Amino acid sequence: MTLEYHLEDTMKKPSIVGVLCIDSQGLYLGCCGTLSDEHAGVIFILAWQATKLTYDLTDMPVVCLESDNGNVRGQKHNGITEAVQKMVS
């Protein structure tokens, strides 16, 4: 599965309006929808800092920024940080 396919497939899910992928060094890999390369640094740092809050190295916390209109969730997984933006339906 290519990154482009993953991004487009994720965008097909209900209420999702943006998706962003970042590599293990914080570099932008790709995006679709409302999230862009401008968001990569902030999402990467938030997800990276969240991993410092757990003692279990296998635990990958999810960072969730919520508003009245929706949320953005970011998580590190296998060296890739992914962020997904959902709008309230």
Descriptive report:
Strands 2-1-5-4-3 form a 5-stranded antiparallel beta sheet, sandwiched between helices. The longest helix has 11 residues, at 40-50. With 89 residues, it is of the alpha+beta class. It has helices at residues 3-11, 40-50, and strands spanning 16-22, 28-33, 62-67, 70-77, 80-87. The model has no long low-confidence stretch (mean pLDDT 92). 22% of the residues lie in helices and 39% in strands. The protein has 2 helices and 5 strands. It is globular.
Rg estimate, integer Å? 13 Å
* Helix-strand sequence: HEEHEEE
Cα-to-Cα separation, first versus last residue: 29 Å
Helix content: 10-25%
Number of helices: 2
Question: What features would you highlight for this structure?
Answer:
five-stranded antiparallel beta sheet; alpha+beta; 89 residues
What's the short story on this structure?
By secondary structure, this protein is an alpha+beta fold. It has helices spanning 3-11, 40-50, and strands at residues 16-22, 28-33, 62-67, 70-77, 80-87. It is built from 2 helices and 5 strands; from the N terminus they run αββαβββ.
